[in-house]
Specification:
This protein is mostly beta strands. The chain contains no helices and twelve strands. The chain has strands at 3-7, 10-13, 18-19, 21-25, 33-39, 45-51, 58-60, 68-73, 78-83, 92-100, 103-106, 110-115. The strands form two sheets. Strands 2, 5, 6, 7, 10, 11 and 12 form a seven-stranded mixed sheet that branches. Strands 1, 3, 4, 8 and 9 form a five-stranded antiparallel sheet that branches.
Length: 116
Amino acid sequence: QVQLVESGGGLVQAGGSLRLSCAASGRHFSNYVMCWFRQAPGKGREFVAAINGKGDSTDYADSRKGRFTISRDNAKNTVYPQMNSLKPDDTAVYFCSAVRLGYRYWGQGTQVTVSS
């Protein structure tokens, strides 16, 4: 099992950047596919980005390609989404998720608010 704690959220102006972090506790972090999702007010949770265990393969939702970059540091058990050119539509609670062997674990989320 793995426990996830997100940090780095906050208020940023449109066009700005923000880097979130997700710190994982537990064993075998490098065996987990790490993902980010987000949930805007009144909407369902949607996929943002994912990275494989080695960190050499990534996937992004189409609307985030070119603006978001996901990376991980397995020595620190941490995964980072770098978010650039933020828009008010990016306002949401951002959740970190770890997946392995059919099990998915979630963090508590961190709020990102983008002002226009």
